[in-house]
Amino acid sequence: MKRDKLNREEIENMLKFIWLREERGDRVDASELGEYLDILKEEGYIDIVNDRVYLTDSGRERAEKIVRLYRLAERLLVDILGIEDYGEHACKFEHVISEEVEEALCTLLGHPRYCPHGEYIPMGRCCITNGDRVERRIYRLSELQPDEEGEIKYVVATGEEGSIMFSIGLIPGKKVKVIRTYPNMVIEIDNAHIAIDRRIAELCYIVKTQLNL
Ligand SMILES: [Zn+2]
Ligand SMILES: [Zn+2]
């Protein structure tokens, strides 16, 4: 296939494919890339060593961006739009989002670290620098001030932390209100006041209820 027949989306999907395999620790053989092999090499996105494909720095940077956008789109669909069964929809997003929109989206979502499947979302510039330029919808429970409340959207804990959260009722769909944050964090959930570890509050993502003052 000639280069002009390959669009940006196909190239990005290929880079994503290689990156995801690397993430799982699996190798990609040169033969698997078929018609994309030469183009990706010409563009400087990959190196081939002993028939194995490696992403170059620029290839990795571009792939990470695509994976990041894909996983942010997943969070948007599930957390804000409430679409669990999104199938291929998230796959289109990642190719059309500009850098500006990406940052706004990430901020709106509270700079999430994981997608709904528990996979890591590569960080963007907005996740490192402070100062949000758009209004956020999703916050970590640990960021709330006394009297602020909201609904739990998702939690990212597994193992021991996960069972602690489950036992106090910190699960998606529950309403939670912050009673105080100092000297320790106390929340109200199911009409009971419970002191929780700050570490636990960090893992709990919620949509804040707008206060009508
Ligand atoms: Zn995912
Ligand atoms: Zn961010």
Description:
The chain has 213 residues and is α+β, with helices and mostly antiparallel strands. The chain folds into 2 domains: 1-136, Winged helix-like DNA-binding domain superfamily/Winged helix DNA-binding domain (Arc Repressor Mutant, subunit A, Orthogonal Bundle); 138-208, SH3 type barrels. Helices cover 39% and strands 18% of the residues. The chain has 8 helices and 8 strands, in the order H-H-E-E-H-H-H-H-E-E-H-E-E-E-H-E. Strands 3-8-4-5-6-7 form a 6-stranded antiparallel β-sheet. The chain has a two-stranded antiparallel sheet with strand order 1-2. Strand 5 (175-180) and strand 6 (185-189) form a beta hairpin. It is elongated. The protein starts with 7 loop residues before the first helix and ends in a 5-residue tail after the last strand. Residues 71, 74, 115-117, 119 line the site of one zinc ion. One zinc ion binds next to helix 5 and helix 6.
Give the neighbour order of strands across the main sheet.
Answer: 3-8-4-5-6-7
**Secondary-structure element order, N to C:** HHEEHHHHEEHEEEHE
Proportion in β-strands = 15-25%
Number of strands: 8
Shape: elongated
For CATH, the homologous superfamily of the largest domain is named as Winged helix-like DNA-binding domain superfamily/Winged helix DNA-binding domain
Provide a count of the helices: 8
Assign the CATH topology of the largest domain.
Arc Repressor Mutant, subunit A
CATH-level-2 architecture of the largest domain: Orthogonal Bundle
| Rg calc | 21 Å
